[in-house]
Design brief:
The chain is built from twelve helices and seven strands. β5, α9 and β6 form a beta-alpha-beta unit. The longest helix has 13 residues.
Length: about 240
């Protein structure tokens, strides 16, 4: 069976919703925090926690109204229908927050699409509301991400499955090592090139749909040997 996993921010969502949200509600502090993350001084969990702490005044309603202005890739609907019509499981993996991932998926008619992300709580503190993130899908051995996408890819797949991964950024670097078919854009392209990970470049999900249509027409789809070996190594260690 073929299984598809896709990033959300900048991939399914046309923009990086989380980045825009914190730049808007935390201002210059957000940019400084992200610089620490990009240069490796802090990991994703620390980055997201500090960004939430930097939001001094924002209600759930205000954040919801802000999130509602964002749109998904208009060709994602076609892609989701392609997967559904061929019984290909599709799962969304985000290192962002469930608050906006779930809201935008539901708003655009994808409320039944399974997703995994970091969690956000709104905690009333006097006259203000604090944003408190938590990381239910972290991994003790993964120091980079809040939501370990690799673990979802591995635990939701069987040995015989063909794993497809679609992404664009830092949190997608780990899971593409375990995927047989990779679709990349943005900084993920440079990572794949540097690490010799075979990939298909895409701009929108229409590109992904066209390529996968050609792939599924093949009588036999080959696994990527490096990815298969990486998966076996993880399970052997477990």
């Amino acid at each position: 069976m073929m299984r598809v996993f896709s990033d959300f921010d900048g991939t399914i969502a046309a923009e990086d919703v989380g980045s825009r949200l914190f730049r808007t509600f935390a201002g210059a502090q957000a940019s400084e925090i992200v610089r620490y993350y990009l240069d490796g001084t802090i990991n994703a969990r620390a980055c997201l926690t500090r960004e939430c702490e930097a939001v001094e005044s924002a209600t759930r309603g205000e954040l919801g109204e802000f999130v509602d202005q964002f749109s998904l890739d208009p060709t994602f609907k076609e892609f989701a229908a392609f997967c559904r019509g061929r019984d290909i499981p599709l799962v969304v993996l985000s290192d962002g927050l469930d608050f906006y991932v779930e809201r935008l998926l539901k708003k655009n008619g994808f409320g039944n699409l399974p997703f995994f992300s970091n969690h956000l709580e709104f905690v009333d503190s006097g006259a203000t509301t604090k944003l408190v993130p938590s990381f239910p899908h972290t991994d003790a051995e993964c120091l980079l991400c809040g939501n370990c996408k690799r673990n979802h890819v591995l635990t939701l797949s069987a040995d015989d499955d063909i794993i497809v991964y679609i992404g664009d950024g830092i949190s997608d670097r780990c899971p593409v090592r375990y995927a047989d078919i990779v679709f990349a854009k943005g900084s993920l392209i440079r990572y794949c090139q540097a690490q010799n990970v075979t990939y298909h470049e895409f701009k929108t999900f229409s590109d992904v749909t066209r390529r996968l249509e050609l792939i599924v027409q093949r009588k036999r789809i080959k696994k990527r040997r490096e990815a298969e070996m990486a998966r076996r190594e993880v399970f052997a260690q477990g």
